[in-house]
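Quick one, T. Sequence first:
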Amino acid sequence: MSSTPFYAHSSSSPAEKWHLLKEHLKGTAQFAEEFARAARPSDEDFAACAKWAGLLHDLGKYTDKFQRRLLNSAAGKKAEKAPHSKYGAAAAVKRKDFEAAFAILGHHAGLPSLTDLRNCAKNLEAEEIASLVARAQEDGSSSLCTNIPASSDDKTAKGKLDLRIRMLFSC
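C-alpha cells:
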C-alpha cells in the first residue's frame, strides 16, 4: 500500500477529511455498475464495462500535478490546470474498450469526438499510463486492468454502439 494519500477532491477542511481517491473510484464504479444493471438488467458485459469505466474515470488524479493542484487550491495558492480524464480514457483505448474511453474522456465536458479520443490516446505514453495504473493499484484502488469487460455481440451495429456509449456515459 502507498504511504502517500491520494485525494479525489479538496475542501476547506483539513486534508485528513478530504475524499480519498481510492474510495472515490470504488464508489463511482459501484454506482456506475448499479445504474448499468438497472438500465440493461441482462447485460453483464455492460455492467462490467460501467464498473471498469468508474474505476478508471479519475486515473489522472494520481498524477503529482493533480495532487499539487488540490493542495495549492486548499492553501489559497494559484492552482495550475491539471486535466485528468485523458489518462483513464487513454488506458481504455489501449485496451480497446472504446465505449469506456468515450465515457471517461467526456465525464466533465460531454462526449468527445472520435478525433479527440484518438488524439488523447496518441499523445500519452504507454509508460505514463502504466505508471499511473501501478500507482492506483498500489494505493488499493482495485485491479484496474485485469477485469476488462469482454466484447459484446450487441456492439456490432453503429446505432447500437452509439446508444451503448451514451448509456454508459449516463451511468
